[in-house]
Design brief:
29% helix, Aminopeptidase, 12 helices, Aminopeptidase i, Domain 2, 6-stranded antiparallel sheet, 22% strand, 2 domains
């Protein structure tokens, strides 16, 4: 069953809208390379559209009416957006849910050291990555350092043209004979993914105490020994001096820091025809952006709309900001309290009667690796939004397997609006597999299916998507948001 090529369905007006949406999406990617940065971008965007913070409305005791726009943020890493519909919330919501975390490299709590004339940050990779893809690339450092007094210092180094960048070294080909004999999973070990951040030693004048680098000691022998040790770590001392002067950060402040290492540089258009985008973090910020944009652009609806964007999906949706937490359920309960509908039973009815698109990416068919795909059931770049009836692996283990009635409903509403879509599995049976947040929301008894954008290079530092798929997925999400539910 052949599906349409999305590009062939557009007129000039639609192509103009497509380019406008993708330009906004590129800016979203470039300004939101971490979960915290994503939340900042999202909050600024939705507040300009009239959304109010739920916690403030709770304190005011304000009663919510249809059409009101509300959001709640969890620890600056997850967000739930709601727009009250005409029908009671007990009749269910239409939910677009995605995740905003992406594979990356995190800085450890005791990271700074010197070896061989280089200063390094020790790291631990986050999410599923091919470790060899992260070496010999220009990298940026994003995140926050929180001092003991509560002061938060934001860091974003490596994105501007006049910023320094960082990198993880690789072994030169002339010495790599033994390395190249290893399996790909072992070519670069996890503990070898340490970030080079400097090589210039601080200048220590003989006999002079230098800002605490060589402290005076009563015992001259101890002073000489410690001075010798400090000279051995003069590059590290130089980095600490820079951090102190530029950011007022001490070495111990790394203990309460969240620093993420990501590819440096902006999202770029791909090909002579500029038909694709290559950028970091498209899994799953492409679905987060299109979900948010669809919710902002849709008109009045019968059912309450929700856009839920969460953290930690890449490591199992755990923790206070992951989908397994009670953040979403609590936000729904507080919302229903402000609409005058709250009871424990009503919250359960609301969730069970809701419909959700678990907005997550799918693996785009790659002709260079065709043996990993079953072509009839693969997602193709440029053929519209993708539905995955199930994910999981090895006999659908760990998946939410959407029911046929729900899929039929989605087919009907999408076909009525001329949305181009396709269905897919994540690779061949017993070859592929993956997870999303779908199965977690399905535990409430609601209808859930995975849908999103086909991606090439998924989980690599640079991922590729089709502009047409981004636009068509946005259109599909709008149709779903407008729907009256099953």
């Amino acid at each position: 069953m052949e599906r349409k090529v999305t590009w062939e369905t557009y007129d000039e007006e639609q192509l103009e809208k497509l380019e406008k949406l993708n330009l906004e999406y590129r800016n979203f990617l470039d300004n939101g390379k971490t979960e915290r940065e994503c939340i900042d971008v999202i909050v600024n965007t939705i507040e300009a559209e009239g959304y109010q913070e739920l916690e403030s409305l709770i304190q005011e005791g304000k009663r919510l009416q249809k059409g009101d726009k509300v959001y709640s943020v969890c620890m600056n890493k997850s967000i739930a957006m709601f727009r009250i519909g005409e029908k009671p919330m007990t009749e269910g919501m239409n939910i677009l849910g995605a995740h905003i975390d992406s594979p990356r490299i995190d800085v450890k709590q005791n990271p700074l050291y010197e070896d061989g004339g280089f200063a390094y940050l020790d790291t631990h990779y986050y999410g599923g990555v091919k470790k060899y893809q992260w070496v010999a690339l220009p990298l940026a450092l994003h995140g926050v350092v929180v001092k003991k007094d509560g002061t938060t210092i934001e860091m974003n180094i490596g994105e501007n043209e006049d910023d320094p960048i960082f990198f993880i070294s690789d072994l030169l080909i002339h010495l790599a004979g033994e390395q190249l004999e290893k399996k790909a999973a072992k070519v670069i070990e996890g503990e070898a993914l340490d970030l080079i951040i400097g090589s210039r030693p601080i200048k220590i004048e003989p006999g002079k105490k230098d800002e605490g680098v060589c402290e005076e000691k009563e015992n001259s022998g101890q002073e000489k020994a410690e001075g010798k040790d400090q000279a051995k770590e003069a590059v590290k001392a130089g980095i600490l001096d820079i951090l102190k002067r530029a950011y007022d950060i001490e070495e111990e402040d790394f203990l309460s820091a969240e620093l993420e290492i990501v590819p440096a540089g902006k999202t770029r258009e791909v090909g002579f025809d500029r038909s694709m985008l290559l950028g970091y973090g498209q899994d799953d910020r492409v679905c987060a952006f299109t979900s948010m944009r669809a919710m902002l652009d849709v008109g009045a609806t019968e059912r309450t709309l929700c856009c839920l964007l969460v953290d930690k999906e890449e490591i199992g949706s755990v923790g206070a900001t992951g989908m397994h937490s009670r953040f979403f359920e609590n936000a729904v309960a507080e919302l229903m309290n402000l609409t005058g509908e709250y009871s424990e039973l009503n919250v359960r009815r609301c969730l069970a009667r809701s419909c959700m698109l678990s907005s997550d990416v799918s693996a785009g068919f790659d002709p260079s690796y065709a043996s990993c795909f079953e072509k009839k059931n693969a997602a193709f770049v440029g053929k519209g939004m993708v539905f995955n009836k199930f994910t999981g692996s090895r006999g659908k283990s760990g998946s939410n397997d959407a029911n046929a009635e729900y899929i039929a409903y989605l087919r009907r509403i999408l076909d009525e609006k001329g949305i181009v879509y396709q269905t897919a599995e994540l690779g061949k049976v017993d070859v592929g597999g993956g997870g999303t947040i779908a199965y977690i929301l399905a535990e409430y008894g609601m209808n859930v299916i995975d849908s999103g954008v086909a991606v090439l290079n998924m989980h690599a530092p640079w991922e590729a998507t089709s502009k047409a798929d981004v636009y068509e997925t946005y259109r599909g999400y709008m149709v779903f948001a407008e729907g009256a539910g099953m």
